[in-house]
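Please go through the protein record below and explain what the tokens say about the fold. Record follows.
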Amino acid sequence: MIDIGVTKLAIIGGIALIVIGPDKLPAVAKTVGTLLGRARRYVADVKAEVNKSMDLDELKKMRETVENAARDVENTIQTNAADFEKSWSEATTAALEGGNTVDSVPEYKHPNKNWRLKQGAVPHWYKARNGVRTKALSGAARVARYRPRKASQ
């Protein structure tokens, strides 16, 4: 780089004062300052554009890698689905050849369980015999159930 010290700047300033003259030197210095400012802004804009293009290239590369990974996942899913279909068709043809028909498979029957009741390991007959409570009561229901009855008069 250009190595400019204080002494070199003083020499350049002295020569500029002699060549340009003391009347026009402030206007020339102002013009040189604005030109240097424009040059710095231009260099900063160029740097920003270069950085933006580099980031854009990186994002494009990242997008391509993500798209390739998605394609690979899709291909593996398709091959697995094809393998499953093949094994399923082999299993169903083997079951049909063995004398079993699709109609002989029992139909699904819902268990009709009450999901509100907790199913424990203790059987209901044991709970009923020993007086263990199997259903939860709300506070109002408990008060109504255990309220003393009025004696009939």
Remarks:
- The CA atoms of residues 63 and 150 lie 81 Å apart.
- The two ends are 118 Å apart (CA to CA).
